[in-house]
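SUBJECT: protein chain
CONTENTS: sequence, structure tokens:
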Amino acid sequence: MIPLRDDIPSLTTPFVNYAVIAICSLAFLAQQTSTDQSEGIIASYAMVPVRLSDPDIVPVIETQAAVRTAQGIEVVNVRQELGPSAVPPWMTLVTCMFLHGGWMHFLGNMWFLYIFGDNVEDRLGHFGYVLLYLGTGVMAGLAHYISQTDSPVPTLGASGAIAGVMGAYAFLYPHARVLAVLPLFVIFTTFVVPAPVFLGLWFVIQVFSGIGSLGVGVGGGVAWWAHAGGFAAGIIAAVIIGRLPMGHGPVTARRF
């Protein structure tokens, strides 16, 4: 399911949400100019779990590649060392959430943030939203780290922090509705679904995918536990920050 819009109007301009989207966009464009991921921006600013476990270690990624030889095509093992981190390993828990692994990863994340982030910022205030975004992003990174403490694979993306925003949204707007589209091959069906159902289903998928990825390495390249951990952290953060005197109260939903 892909959200198209929700039915909760914003009362203020979500400056922080726009700023996060802008920073992620600039960082992603900078990534496009970095041709060597083992030495460039990803190696320098992505979170590598094994570096958190041992800051002095040199991460080595082992992959397989098909090469042409005199005997034909053969699959060989390739060992690739990651270049040094540009910041202390603990700081990559923050820097990694502004990087992305590709166009679909980037566009999908920014769209979800655009849909749900403005309303959460509206309720928590600009400063409260900064605390929520960065805090849940770090907690999401730690959740992924706990699941793969020895992994040398760089972890990057705003998905964990955005999952935190989604968790906060589900708590703060229990009566909101989302207009979503369900792609069925060449048919696209739109329907209205309660926001907690839409977001709750997304969370359940992340949890079961995370359970399925246990013991199989990188989990298919997706940090499922970062998503689940960020979502849970977002609910907790919304409960705490929502008690502070900032932001606005509930607003009246608009009709689709």
